[in-house]
Amino acid sequence: MIRSRLGDLIASGLFDRLDQRDRRLLERRAGIKSAGDEPFSLDPRGWWYAVPGAAYAGVFEALGLHDRFPVTLDEGADVEDLPFRQDAVPTFVTPELDGWRLVFGNLPDLVGVDWDAWMAAAERLSAWCGEAQMFYEDGAGGTDLWVVAREGRIRRRRAAYDDADDVGDPFPWEEHERTVTVAQACARLSVDPGGIGASTRMRGHGWLALSRPGIGHENLNALVGL
Fold first, then answer.
1. Which of 133, 210, 223, 224 lies 20 to 30 A from 216 at CA?
2. pLDDT given for residue 170 in this prediction
3. Burial (Cβ within 10 Å: 0-12, 13-18, ≥19) of residue 162
4. Angle at Cα 24 formed by Cα 218 and Cα 70, nearest 5°?
């Protein structure tokens, strides 16, 4: 009964207009399903952000995301494969993983593709969440870039292009002086998506959200399997 009702609500594409009771039902569903989930390796396809788990609510304001919908890790992991709806791109905020939440999915469309846009997004995220990390890895182009922002300002960043370092601020701790690649940096700074597994502490459920308000989640009906 509840399963059928929730399926109808999602198919209606009016999640942004649900009342508090319906929202609580959907969150309860995601919480129950997430409690039985096992964390697994993620593929953000080369670009993601990390924010402290407790402060993740600021992500939606910082990136202009709307109509958030509670989902499990498994339901949100392939967010890039979801179709756009009226130019509203879906983005995934993961459950808390070892104290961090990762943000990925369609980021070129959401944030932009130039340096200034990347840095501005990291600064906005850190202003809302206290800290934000950005990781960008392009194996084909030979690019590794990671950024740490705190309280609205870029504090550390490092970029490597085809093994030629272009360093902004050096990594601040001596034991990490040789940290260059994204794979090294994310594992030390927060969470390595590719290293998530049985030993990773996972808490809560994740969220899918859209880059435009009032669009709803009709296209997610098949994804959540209601």
1. 133
2. 46
3. exposed
4. 45
CA torsion sign, 220 to 224 to 225 to 226?
negative
Q: How far is CA 95 from CA 38, 113, 135, 171, 189, in A?
A: 11, 26, 18, 28, 18
- Tell me how far apart the alpha carbons of residues 224 and 226 are, in angstroms, rounded to a whole number: 6
Q: Which of 27-36, 121-130, 139-148, 186-195 has the lowest mean pLDDT?
A: 27-36
Report the alpha-carbon distance of residue 120 to residue 97 in Å, rounded.
Answer: 25
Q: Which helix (H) or strand (E) holds 127?
A: helix 115-129
Task: Give the Cα separation of 209 and 171 in Å (integer).
Answer: 33
Cα–Cα distance for residue pair 82/170, rounded to 1 Å: 38
Terminal-residue alpha carbon distance, the chain: 11
Task: Give the DSSP letter string of 21-65.
Answer: HHHHHHHHHHHHHHHT--------TTEEEEEEGGGTTHHHHHTT-
Phi, psi of 201 (to 5 degrees): -85, 120
Report the pLDDT averaged over residues 14-32: 66
Question: What would the pLDDT profile of 138-177 be if each residue is shown by its tens digit?
Answer: 866 667 889 999 999 999 888 776 444 444 444 443 334 4
CA–CA distance, 146 with 48 (Å, rounded to integer): 10
Residues 89/211, Cβ–Cβ less than 8 Å: yes
d(C-alpha 70, C-alpha 33), whole Å: 11
Dist. CA 132–CA 141, nearest whole Å: 25
